[in-house]
Design a protein that fits this description.
By secondary structure, the protein is of the alpha/beta class. The chain is built from 16 helices and 10 strands. The chain has helices at 8-13, 20-27, 40-43, 68-71, 73-82, 94-97, 107-118, 136-139, 145-162, 189-194, 197-209, 227-241, 265-274, 298-316, 336-339, 357-369; strands at 49-54, 85-88, 122-129, 169-174, 214-219, 248-251, 254-256, 278-289, 321-326, 343-344. It binds (3S,4R)-3-hydroxy-2-oxopiperidin-4-yl beta-D-xylopyranoside (XIL). (3S,4R)-3-hydroxy-2-oxopiperidin-4-yl beta-D-xylopyranoside (XIL) binds at residues 58-59, 89-90, 174, 220, 252, 283, 335.
């Protein structure tokens, strides 16, 4: 286990929470500005990747800006300089990859993988079996069980096989439990029509298509020890006992300041590690209430920095947690305002690409760990 401590400079970023004497001590330390030329990826300890979602598809299609990944050069530059891992925000989901039952549209996914190779970045594949963002032809196709199995098998073999050796981790199954820890037998077409056994098959097919890829369960609201993370714990134990190639468990980590920080995060990751799994934080953002488009207060920015730093620390403290990915930047490209009414400000970059206290907190936490 790597144990890390917050450096004085992180504490500077969080000064609002410090007693005066500690804040004065922090003032004697180098200001975070001294590190302004250090990228997050360069500050990370060896073997630890710091990722971002690649903005495109999904909610972006309803916005009036050009595709961020291809049309915003400043965005593209920062994506390459700051991050050592990329996740497709939408470009590898079924609705993007599968215009029809017989067709695959790989251009956008290929572009991300090629860019990652040019920039020496890992890629996380997201996602193969999910209840959301599936094409209409699939959801409304009235397929037989046999046909559905064949459709999923073909998809996994084709997609995972195409990027074999190039995609390091796949979110094979995404969000298969609800918050009560019940399998999504209603809205997940695969589980509803084929039963829970299809989940193990999905992992087997993915492993056969790329034996080098690490295969994950991924979900939100599983940061703490709770009914939902318990359900994953039990299921992965069963699957591992059956010899199913499950390699990792990841917590999306979409946090909101209106709820307390999930203080059981490290303990929760550790119990999955004890099963022999890798762990990761895959979609980190920290939203805040900004009614009527209000600007964040200093306090909100400090609290946000604290949440980001604590999430990163929890991962750094668990030896098999080698990957921490933020769910996009800057705020203007974030999915949050489209999904959570009255909330926003969730990323570590302002819209002009200057950095927030949360960015400094990540940087200093990485430097302290390195
Ligand atoms: C979100 C994207 O960020 C949006 O662009 C899209 O409109 C909806 O999906 N959990 C996941 C991600 O696993 O795929 C979701 O991404 C956010 C929640």
């Amino acid at each position: 286990m790597r144990q890390i401590r917050l450096s004085a400079a992180v504490l500077t970023a969080l000064a609002l929470t410090l007693p005066a004497s500690a804040a004065a001590a922090a003032d004697d330390q180098p200001a975070t500005g001294l590190h302004q030329n250090t990228a997050l990826r360069d500050a990370a300890p060896s073997g630890f990747v710091i990722g971002s979602a690649v903005a495109g598809g999904g909610h972006h299609q309803d916005e009036d800006y050009p595709d961020p990944f291809t049309g915003d050069q400043e965005y593209r530059r920062i994506l390459g300089e700051e991050f050592s891992s990329l996740s497709a925000e939408n470009q590898m989901k079924w609705d993007h990859l599968r215009p029809s039952r017989d067709g695959y549209a790989f251009d956008d996914a290929d572009a991300i993988v090629a860019y990652a190779q040019d920039n020496g970045q890992d890629v996380r594949g997201h996602t193969l079996l999910w209840h959301s963002q599936n094409p209409d032809w699939l959801e409304n196709g009235n397929f037989s069980q046999e046909e559905l199995r064949e459709i999923l098998r073909d998809h996994i073999e084709t997609v995972v096989g195409r990027y074999a050796g190039q995609i390091h981790q796949w979110d094979v199954a995404n969000e298969i439990f609800d918050d009560g820890g019940n399998l999504r037998t209603g809205d997940n077409i695969w589980i509803r029509e084929l039963g829970v056994g299809i989940v193990g098959d999905a992992f087997r097919w993915a492993h056969a298509a790329d034996p080098s890829a690490e295969l994950y369960f991924n979900d939100y609201n599983v940061e703490d020890v709770n009914a939902k993370s318990d359900a994953y714990y039990e299921l992965t134990r069963e699957l591992l006992a059956e010899g199913v190639p499950v390699h990792g468990f990841s917590a999306q980590t979409h946090l909101s300041l209106q709820y307390g920080f999930p203080s059981g995060l490290q303990t929760n990751l550790e119990r999955f590690e004890a099963l022999g799994l890798s762990t990761a934080l895959t979609e980190v953002d920290v939203r805040m209430q900004l009614p009527g488009g209000a600007e964040p207060t200093e306090q909100q920015l400090a609290d946000q920095a604290d949440y980001y730093a604590r999430a990163l620390e929890a991962c750094l403290n668990v030896s098999g947690c080698d990957s921490f990915t933020v769910w996009g930047f800057p705020d203007k490209y974030s999915w949050v305002p489209n999904t959570f009414e009255g909330e926003g400000g969730a990323t570590v970059y302002w819209d002009d690409y200057t950095t927030k206290p949360a960015y400094d907190a990540l940087l200093e936490t990485l430097l302290a760990a390195g």
